[in-house]
C-alpha cells in the first residue's frame, strides 16, 4: 500500500532520445561514454547562452517554470552591479514521492547535468558550483562524476565544486530551503521573501535551477536552437521527462516530446484504459477527470487548459475501482506531516484539512464538507512557504474533480469502493503518517443540556471542534481519527460542565489489500532500459 518508487525505475522514450541518449547502451554514462554519446561542448558567453535559452523557450523543469534566460540575465546583472562572483546551484533535491526524473538523470546521466551547470558557470564567471541531492544513490553518482572531471572543493582550484545532501522532504526542495541548506542551515524555508539571483549562497547572486533544466541547456548548446526546436510543439519545443506512477502496471520515467497525447504515455506504463482521474504535477498539482485526460497532450499549456498542471512532470492515474477521496486522504496526511512547523497555516491548518477530509469520507455530512472547505480556504496565501498553498490546491482540486464521489460520501455516507493506496509515498516511516487519519472507532458526543459554551474544547481540538455562529461548539458526527484520539480525550477532560464525552462508533476501518496490477500492453515507444534497478 502506497509503496515508494525505486530510485531508478524503468526508463522509456517516445521518438528519438535527447536527454536519455545512450541509456540503451550502459547503465550509467561515465565521462568517456558521455563524450562518445554526446560529443564535446564549447563554452559560451553569458548573453549568447541567455539568447539560446530564450530561443528554445526553456523554463525551469522543477515545477515553477520560470524562464531560464531571465534567471541568467538577472544573476549576471546582480553580479556586475555588486562586483562579486556569482554561484551556480543544481537543485537535485527531489523530495516529492511521485517524482523520479531528476533522480534518474543524476544516476544515469550526471555529466549531462554537469555540462549545463559548468556551461552556465563559465558564462557567468562563477567560481563555485554546488549540487544539492536528497538520496544516497544520487550523491554517490554525482560525487563520482565530479571526481571523473577532477573537480573538488579544494582551495586554489579555478572552480570549486561540492555536493550538499538534504533530507528527503517536500519542503527541502524549495529554493529558499536549498539556499539555506547550502549555507549550512536546516533545509527549511527561511521565512522571508527574497530572490536568490540577488542574494543566495553566502550572500552572492546565485543561479539556482532544477537538474533537468541544466541537462536541457546542455543538449541545446550542442545541437543549436533550430534543431532543438524541431522536436515537440512550436510554443514549447523539446522533450520533457515524466514520472508515471499510481495505478499502472509498473512505474516508469518517460522522455517524450511535447505534444504527445497524454493517453499514449499512460498506455506505455500500463494505466487503466479509462482512468477515473489523473493527478498531474505531483502532490501540489491538480486532478484531471477522465474526459480531460483523454484530450490533453503533454505540454504546460494543454494541461492548464484542461485543469491540470505539468509541474515537475509527475503523472498519476487512478483506476475506476478505487475511492478517489480515500486515495487522496493518504496523500493529505503525508502533506500534513511534511510541515516545516514554522507557521500556523501549515502546522495546524494542514492537519485540520486532512482531518476534515477524513470526516467527509467517514460520514461527517454537509457540516464536515463545509468545515473542510473553510479550512482549505483559510490556509491559502498565509504560509511562510508555498507548501500550504500547494497542499490547499491539492485539496481543492480533489473536491472539484470527484463531485459524484463527494456527493455519495456526503449524502449517503460512502461511495462503496475501497481504497487501495496506489499513490506512492516515501516508505515505512512515512506510511504511519499516511495512515493516521484512519477512524479510531470513537466519536465525540455533546450533551447540549449541560454545555455552557466555554469553548475550551475548541482550543484543544480545533481540527474537529469549531465555534458556531451562536457561540457554541460545532462538530461533525464522524469518527475521531486515530492521530487525534489523545487530544480528543484531553478535550473531554477539560470540559468544566462535563458535557463532552467519547463514545464507540464502531470498529476502526483497516485498509484493504491492493489488487494485482494489470499487465503492460505490448509496444509503446523505444525502450531505453530493460529491467530498471531499485
Automatic annotation (TrEMBL):
All copies of domain NADH-ubiquinone oxidoreductase 51kDa subunit FMN-binding, residue ranges: 55-218
Domain of life: Bacteria
Biased composition (Gly residues): 522-534
Domain NADH-ubiquinone oxidoreductase 51kDa subunit iron-sulphur binding: 328-409
Cofactor(s) the protein needs: [4Fe-4S] cluster; FMN
Alphabetically ordered keywords of this record: 4Fe-4S, Flavoprotein, FMN, Iron, Iron-sulfur, Metal-binding
Disordered as annotated region, ranges: 182-204, 501-534
Pfam family name, one: Complex1_51K
Compositional bias segments (type: Low complexity): 191-200
InterPro entries found in the cross-reference section: ComplexI_51kDa_subunit, Nuo51_FMN-bd, Nuo51_FMN-bd_sf, Nuop51_4Fe4S-bd, Nuop51_4Fe4S-bd_sf
Family: Belongs to the complex I 51 kDa subunit family.
Protein name from the UniProt record: NADH-quinone oxidoreductase subunit NuoF family protein
Organism: Streptomyces hebeiensis
Source taxonomy: Bacteria, Bacillati, Actinomycetota, Actinomycetes, Kitasatosporales
